[in-house]
Protein 1
Amino acid sequence: MILRDPVHGLVAFESEEEAVVEALLGAVEVQRLRRIRQLGLTALAYPGADHTRFAHAIGAAFVMKLLIARLRSIQDTLPFWQRITTERARDALAAALLHDVGHGPFSHLFEEALPGTPRHEEWTARIILDPSTEVHRTLAKFDPYMPGRVAELVRGRHELTFLARSVSGTFDVDRCDYLLRDAYATGVSYGTFDLDWLLRSLRFGVASVSGAVPPLAVDGPRGLPAIESFILARLFMFQQVYFHKASRSSEWMLITIFRRVRALLEDGTRLPGVPKALESLIRKGDAALDDYLALDDCWLLVALDAWRSVKDPVLSDLTTRLHTRRLFKTFELYGNFAGRAARQTLLERARQVATAHGVDADVYVGLDAVSDVPFDDREDSLAVIFPDGKPSKPGDVSFLLGRLRGQALERARLIFPVELRDAIIAELAL
Amino acid sequence: MILRDPVHGLVAFESEEEAVVEALLGAVEVQRLRRIRQLGLTALAYPGADHTRFAHAIGAAFVMKLLIARLRSIQDTLPFWQRITTERARDALAAALLHDVGHGPFSHLFEEALPGTPRHEEWTARIILDPSTEVHRTLAKFDPYMPGRVAELVRGRHELTFLARSVSGTFDVDRCDYLLRDAYATGVSYGTFDLDWLLRSLRFGVASVSGAVPPLAVDGPRGLPAIESFILARLFMFQQVYFHKASRSSEWMLITIFRRVRALLEDGTRLPGVPKALESLIRKGDAALDDYLALDDCWLLVALDAWRSVKDPVLSDLTTRLHTRRLFKTFELYGNFAGRAARQTLLERARQVATAHGVDADVYVGLDAVSDVPFDDREDSLAVIFPDGKPSKPGDVSFLLGRLRGQALERARLIFPVELRDAIIAELAL
Amino acid sequence: MILRDPVHGLVAFESEEEAVVEALLGAVEVQRLRRIRQLGLTALAYPGADHTRFAHAIGAAFVMKLLIARLRSIQDTLPFWQRITTERARDALAAALLHDVGHGPFSHLFEEALPGTPRHEEWTARIILDPSTEVHRTLAKFDPYMPGRVAELVRGRHELTFLARSVSGTFDVDRCDYLLRDAYATGVSYGTFDLDWLLRSLRFGVASVSGAVPPLAVDGPRGLPAIESFILARLFMFQQVYFHKASRSSEWMLITIFRRVRALLEDGTRLPGVPKALESLIRKGDAALDDYLALDDCWLLVALDAWRSVKDPVLSDLTTRLHTRRLFKTFELYGNFAGRAARQTLLERARQVATAHGVDADVYVGLDAVSDVPFDDREDSLAVIFPDGKPSKPGDVSFLLGRLRGQALERARLIFPVELRDAIIAELAL
Amino acid sequence: MILRDPVHGLVAFESEEEAVVEALLGAVEVQRLRRIRQLGLTALAYPGADHTRFAHAIGAAFVMKLLIARLRSIQDTLPFWQRITTERARDALAAALLHDVGHGPFSHLFEEALPGTPRHEEWTARIILDPSTEVHRTLAKFDPYMPGRVAELVRGRHELTFLARSVSGTFDVDRCDYLLRDAYATGVSYGTFDLDWLLRSLRFGVASVSGAVPPLAVDGPRGLPAIESFILARLFMFQQVYFHKASRSSEWMLITIFRRVRALLEDGTRLPGVPKALESLIRKGDAALDDYLALDDCWLLVALDAWRSVKDPVLSDLTTRLHTRRLFKTFELYGNFAGRAARQTLLERARQVATAHGVDADVYVGLDAVSDVPFDDREDSLAVIFPDGKPSKPGDVSFLLGRLRGQALERARLIFPVELRDAIIAELAL
């Protein structure tokens, strides 16, 4: 099969080992990803961000194909048992394609909204391992042990650690694809990096013990700018997109809606458009796989629409605001305001304002605090190998990365409805 | 307001006259476009093609903003009454944003599937003119006559014909945006053209009668390549995307599904997930505006999913195939096979094969014939004005366009399920 | 070796067979291409067009590398003797890199200015075959017969005709690179095409005689748009760049300057800055290879500068105009004016105007007529192979190419100094 | 005038105040920039880097045009006397176009090679102020005081400090253009930044004293990523291009060549191809403006070629190596080796190796140490203005810039001919 992808251009899977990709694309659980947006509600902030998990899954498999080609071009120095065989390549391609197959509606949002229920990694494993799924049967047709191996790989476990980490690690094929794809769809141009150079600069490092599997490394200083631009692309995407105030606000609203639905259901209220899986997740903390797979963005959007007319005024109000993009406002906490204690004080004062205005502070006022460490090589990362063979940590040899190492990027924001904005800002200015 | 668009980069609407754009984006009928894909089922062929009518609407308004700026920079030669006032600019921006607000689920597909019901242009007019809509009320707040004027503009009527044609004409802002956006989302790189040069090369032509409104023209030969690349971009997009076999096949399947639903409903069969508007459209040929606006891609996808389990074997089969992307196959008719009579003969033979295999030919075999004339300036088009002031038709002075003028691009394909492929091809090869 | 190219991105030549590229780049005759602009005087029209033959030579070798990889992935169907061996690959890479090594200052301009002297193809062959050059010695070190084989390949002769035509044919690596590179440097964005798809769609056609070498073909209809966009890219580049009035005018001036230098030298006038090779070419129609290789853009620009102060008023005037970009004006002949007879009449009338103004018409008035056939597959071109194995000519199956086939793009212009413009235009308007 | 630029797309200068750009482009001193490469010898490392100062000059003027448009859209809050009048706009456009008109052959290289002679800024001032130049006469035709004002602006002096700093400051039009242009030509994709957003986010800050001219600031946090990406683009270009080992090595060779030429001339040796200006600069430390303007890349390349055959073995050897790109090798000093004292010790040891091999260490061994501070806002930079009107330093509010502030990027390398490589590396490894 061959197709045109806006991010990678010509994408072909044609060799014998690549046939697994085409076979898996025919599975209903993979086709379901067409109905799950990669970036949840981010399209409310970036109108182009309607791309799906399906396109990303193909992209990740394609990056794996490129990576496998690179690994094969440098594996002469490895003993035979450490090389990429046809079987290992097939497993890796399948794992790359399936790494996110368990995502619920609006991707990460769904599991954040339902704490205590299985996370998407767990659903992914179930989909791969459950004999009833088309994904499982497709893999098992290649080899009965393949589902098990692929599930392990997706969890980041493989005897070739470098292969495991290419599915789940700092520079894995998932990140390589989603950074480029999210940047492309949102138009945030500085969210890109040089994938070709990054792949090209890969080489094998030195095994910790003689005979052990060597880690992947980059050829420095040539490979260093490729790593730097990758880390920066990620940093920019967090600053500009993933932590964007409208994304965060809408996600916060959705989570609040789910919390409300949960409370109503627990109270015995009947709500329209609640599918089996949701009810089950809320009541029992888990759901049947079949039912879970029936959930997708469309189901959720239709349900949100239906809940606009329920009797519960809170649920009706919140869903109406979200449906018509009347998002809650945010007030970002900088400097002295951003400390942990200060935040709580400010939240408390905002809640009091709400109460004074007759608004339920538990539902309508919140604090959203997110954090990411864009780069840290102290525990683990690609080493940089110099011409003399000596490996270094990227942060030790990169001007830029040395300064970013271990530093946390944080954003804290108060969240509240527009009608409280003036009052809350006035209160906080005191 | 200012936002980042992957196609146009920085998109800002900040002046007083542009405030209408932000106001309209808050209307629920415009927000609904977030749930209507620009290219229907094309994502089945191009995995990136999940962009929505909402992003396109903003893009069209932005191109209008650029166009207005250009018109103002050249309008010194016009009498005052022919110039772009603030009011006209506001009307034009609103018309550009709203030109497609009446589209149903999956855009053009919906109206093709329900012949005899109002087309999207009619729904657009209703949305603008009906006093109950937020769109109407937003416009009327600016000026009570504004809804009427905008509706006229969307229909391509305005005293300044050049303004009318910029909303609906050969080089209108709709096309300017959708060509670039569809190319961007699908990755079909040759579907682009040079919008900056096209706008920059615009000038006013010579009015047919002294005192009349002059038509727009391009400054030639500088503007000619911009027109050529626009026409070619459109031609390539038709060949590569709009007439793509998987797009056409899936659209044909959807239309067949609708026809089946119609038949079942007329028979009195009860089906799940059929909204009021659809039932009404099928039974009475029309629907209430409110009900129509409740339709979007999500509703349709959820309904298709629900119909997979109905008793009717045909509806159940077709929806299952579409849901899992088991698309009908196509056999393209070239050369001698493509003539009108030959096509019918071939269709008849394919139908007989189906019947011989116990398959209902009325449902499972079809002929899809589409046609587009990429360029024709014999009736109307931008004139090219030479340094000596003489206007020419583009086809008279362009090497390329002279050869394309009036030529029809056609595609004819037999459509049938995969299980009939070998038998039908064998039959046709006889 | 690995380098960063603005057109192709990461360019690497690292395998054993590719070592020839790095070796040849060290040859002084190849380094000389750094001082020869790819597009002659075109930078006078497009300020970005300062790229050199050196960058293009590397680019052509890189496209050859991509082509070889594609050929190897499809050559299983060929008998062993028709496959791409290491030796053939090395020859092809060398031929791609060296195909234009014989160009003189400002590329094509130099040979046009000196009719009757060896053309650049001849100089290329001499450089490859003359045992005194570093190019020759580098090739001979690989294999004493290699210079001869490479020279043949550059001439388009090889037992594998598809390899020969990839060095010199309708879709050769030279064109593939220069179209992309010239478009990149000038910013003429529609001068691009989809190289990846063009390469990817290549397959072997059917040999004319059983056992003969099959021609290359493209897999249609998938490959058709790639061919179409290639042909159109070329057409656009001719219209926009290669036939641009300022390029043509400056080239016409340079040719006139050379003609004057020739006349002066033949008269025995001594001029500064005339290198041996030029004198010899003018006097004897040929030059020693060593002397020829001393010529480059810099030498020519320095000489033009020096000639500004010679006594001959014509040479001094023309070089001063060119040095300060006071280019001759052009008057394009369209429609009735463009016919062969009409042109001569108009030229005659323009010459009379010049004479009436006391200007030497032989030097200062000219007619520049250029022509190119963007597409013609009647004699030879890539065939398009359909799923059923039937080959067709592209023009028979492409909507676009069918309409362009054999059509000539022509431009005819009168050329004259700015001070005659008004008088000549007045005369022609009569 | 309107032209196509590969970096900025459509570049037009058409208004009355912009006419100065077209007028100045006709000046012989500006046309001379066509023969001066922007990046000196960098094309030896990046084959695409043959772009000229001429294209950059136009680009800088175009960025100024964009900046002026932005300033005008926000200047309502300024008193009338602080606004951009037609005259000020014209001065600023001229200053942007002319800011580097005084550069010598290979730009910065020439002045580095001739310490003690006037720097390019001084030559720029002379060209603008000397009544004999076409540049001067062109400006004076607009207004006799214009040359003086433009010269002041180029030096970064103007009553509107924000205008002065846009010609010469941290975010001046020079940098804005050269970063984008150098990135485009070399293909170093991460050397780009978002010019549109940077311009769009500009606003006026708060004047230090009431009534004083306010500084420019950016609207934060929206403008922050634009500044960050600008700073990073610059950092990447330094790391990847400006400090590239092949660029540095070739520049070091050229400087050594100049030093040798100087020594030979001072000894009374006669050398071919030495123009008046060079002789004068070497002997007297200065040259006549006319003579200086005769210098360009071509003259220098022709001279280097001529010097290959002089008797002096050192000059002949060095020029031959440079001509055929047999560049000196570099050994980068990291970590402990990079300290100031360590460097000198290593240099001394490398010199001893050279001497032991009978090579003149003064000529053939060198230490190249370069340094740049990518970002420092402690003295001066754009402030970031928050919604509440409070200005902050970028480093105080940017996660990234806070970590880069004041940090120096350094590169130190030993430089030596290839034949000493093994011996020197062996010695240093001890």
Protein 2
Amino acid sequence: MGLITLVTDFGLRDEYVGVMKGVILGRNPDARIVDLSHGIDPQDVRQAAYLLKAAYPYFPAGSVHTAVVDPGVGSQRAILAARYDGHVFLAPDNGLLSGIWEENSPDALVRVENKALFLEPVSHSFHGRDIFAPIAAHLSLGMDIGALGPALALDQAVHLAFPRAELQADDQLSGQVIAIDRFGNLATNISGTRIAHANPDAVVIRVGHHCITGISASYSGVREGRALALIGSRGSLEIAVNRANAARRLNVAKGAPVVVTLKQTS
Amino acid sequence: MGLITLVTDFGLRDEYVGVMKGVILGRNPDARIVDLSHGIDPQDVRQAAYLLKAAYPYFPAGSVHTAVVDPGVGSQRAILAARYDGHVFLAPDNGLLSGIWEENSPDALVRVENKALFLEPVSHSFHGRDIFAPIAAHLSLGMDIGALGPALALDQAVHLAFPRAELQADDQLSGQVIAIDRFGNLATNISGTRIAHANPDAVVIRVGHHCITGISASYSGVREGRALALIGSRGSLEIAVNRANAARRLNVAKGAPVVVTLKQTS
Amino acid sequence: MGLITLVTDFGLRDEYVGVMKGVILGRNPDARIVDLSHGIDPQDVRQAAYLLKAAYPYFPAGSVHTAVVDPGVGSQRAILAARYDGHVFLAPDNGLLSGIWEENSPDALVRVENKALFLEPVSHSFHGRDIFAPIAAHLSLGMDIGALGPALALDQAVHLAFPRAELQADDQLSGQVIAIDRFGNLATNISGTRIAHANPDAVVIRVGHHCITGISASYSGVREGRALALIGSRGSLEIAVNRANAARRLNVAKGAPVVVTLKQTS
């Protein structure tokens, strides 16, 4: 088959995503292409990294994940290809992928420099079409990333800092809202595993001017219109309002601090 | 092949829809997946039902229609699978499917309980990924719905009331606007068959502060900027403005009453 | 395979696009369908033409490009099918395709009249479903356009005027903004080839109240927040702001005049 996923900030109004698919299907007519998102805020590299990290494990091993959020397009920035966790990744060297492999190093990492695989001529403003699409097609046909260019040491690639939750006292975690989904649910950078050993009924979460007590099992675990906290589908703490938009109801934006107070169990 | 359609309120900014597709393709690499809509208003079960009812007959028999508009996710609400009109349906037990089979009973109806087919562990907030996607994949491979769980009598499933047009006098039908499309066209719950025997030129339609006389054959049947009524592509009465947005021009919202006065022919 | 692209103004909230795909896959289960855009402004035939012209060359020869921006649906307007530049095109006879073949004539042009291929009955409001989708499916299976209806001379088809850049003096080109993309970049109708022979550092571009000197190689060729001009991915002059939205920053809308002053090289 050859499965390719796409994450971009191109939106769906313009022809950009469709054109990438045309280039891919011209090289691998059997490629399966899945849109992860084309609604990344323009040039928000971190948002793309969070989304890709949450999504890729649900795809079959060997999938080619292609992320084009690329404010440096046409400059001297490199393009990276990597093997990591059984998957293949392709992205600009702007730190996007450093959000994927925060815990382990990639199994292989190369700079994409094999111009024979690019569209000719390569534009200065649309590498998604001229470089990423044809390379993704070749990778989906089984080409090894070693054929794309020279190996790169991990510390030669751009590293982007991602905000991390911190233990502020024995019983207090300090993190932030890192994403707001379509429902207005607030995803945080506080991993569920850091709360797992606490008594869920005694956990206190502060965000904006609001204070939530307890971790709910589901969105409908409180009355309609009430705020709640739960371990979301990405495995981290999420703040929501049952049947309403938490971002609007609680007046909280991306980046807002979140403080969790734990009472250890026994 | 195995054709799967998706209707959700997930939007396209987040990774949710892409992740469902990853799970499906991991189980059935040959599945064809068609997005019906991911733009259902959050938690608007009726909107999803109207849309699915309008769309499914245009797909090949045997298609698996998967609807995840699911405000009760993670609660005790059941998940239903059904065979109806030669198609397979999968949805939460919240009345969404009761909008599909208003006229006839399903040929088979089961509660989805076969945990061996679910992702492990099942989250409390994303059954689209953990239950609906793998089940849809198995159904698209030809699994019978009987393998998913115990049969259910129709009156054991949640029934949701959908507003129906009513005959108020011999010559007067009273309905409402049930959907507004991208063009601002107003779909109503007044079936075209109830108007078919009337003289189309003598039908009078009242909506908001406006009064339209006659049923047009097409949008361009009146001058640009003028309101008109026609039998829309869903087979029911629709109100539009030629080359403009009727919802905005007529200042009419979903739920607005629509009254039709008929003059019987001969 | 059989590759079909779709350009419409249907949006993605309603079932219209999904239903077209259902009809296509019912006739050609192996068709590959690529969405070019469903976000064309309602009834903006020119916008669809620009987009399709930019996109189609990146698809394999033989692809069937299906454009349904069709304010005259249900009226007496014809539907056209054409062979042009190795591709197949299908669109209403409203001038949309005249934007594609501004330079050369199509190799073949027919009126689509073979009702045996249409859905039965044909509605007056959704020819995308009832005519375009089944015809596209048959074309993707290899049907010749000659089987669709009688040949048409090019001057019998509707011709739509597209604004062209004009040479106003020996060294001055006058054009306009013809499209604004998701990033707020301003596409113009001034072809890059008309600037190619000038000294790029001496070119002066005037748009709105702004004046830009020089053609940049890429978006990041100027400091963040600064306006720039470059030859965009469609091959024509584009105005952008590095890491910001030029349409908003420069307060420029579609249709705004753009004047380019060239200094000829040697």
